[in-house]
Amino acid sequence: MKKAVYPGSFDPITTGHLEIIKRTARLFDEVIVLVMKNVNKHGMFDYQRRVEMIETACRGLENVTVDLHTGLLTSYMKEYDVSTIIKGLRSSIDFEYEKEMALVNEKLSPGIETVFLISNPEYEMISSSIVRELISYGADLSGFVPSSIQKILREEGLGDE
Ligand code: PNS
């Protein structure tokens, strides 16, 4: 059984994240999308909301589950017996940051592998921080977040003029 964890802050999930999740689901038997704390970022949505939004966006992806963990990634992986981390790479800036993370995680828990998927260029400029900025200006989120999430946010008066 090939298992992988796709960790992130997902504040909120974007179309770029969903693309990586779908591709990972084709490569592995089981994918855990893991909502985690990033100490360097201030949150817009609380953790439970982020989980719910990912669950909504991933409906129909049978081998994908969503979980929440506010401790170290390596401690979660040990507990749930997962040894592969998936990360999406949009640019060389992502690469420099993710390389460091991969080395730290390997040092904390030798044997852990980080597998990088190159983002589709269509999603290169999309990030949760851009989405949060668009939300704060009431801008249209089409193409930035999955349509199911855009609908939910719109119902809450977020993300549309
Ligand atoms: O989507 P992000 O914000 O780039 O994701 C970063 C995240 C949440 C995956 C990273 O900050 C993380 O792994 N946080 C959990 C704590 C941890 O294990 N840190 C790595 C070793 S210091």
Q: Taking Cα atoms only, what radius of gyration do you get, to the nearest Å?
A: 15 Å
Identify the strand order in the major beta sheet: 1-2-3
Distance between the termini: 46 Å
Q: Which ligands accompany this protein?
A: 4'-phosphopantetheine
Largest sheet: 3 strands, parallel
Describe this structure in words.
Helices cover 41% and strands 19% of the residues. It is built from 6 helices and 5 strands. The strands form 2 sheets. The chain has a 3-stranded parallel sheet with strand order 1-2-3, sandwiched between helices. The longest helix is centred in the middle third of the chain and has 17 residues, at 92-108. The radius of gyration is 15 Å and the shape is globular. Bound molecules: 4'-phosphopantetheine. 4'-phosphopantetheine binds next to strand 1 and helix 4. 4'-phosphopantetheine binds at residues 7-9, 36-38, 41, 72-73, 101, 104.
Write the layout of secondary structure elements.
Layout: E1 3-8, H1 15-27, E2 30-36, H2 47-57, E3 64-69, H3 73-79, E4 84-89, H4 92-108, E5 113-118, H5 128-136, H6 147-155
Parallel strand pairs: 1-2, 2-3, 4-5
Bound molecules: 4'-phosphopantetheine.
4'-phosphopantetheine binds near residues 9, 36 and 73.
Structural key phrases:
6 helices; two-stranded parallel ribbon; binds 4'-phosphopantetheine; 41% helix
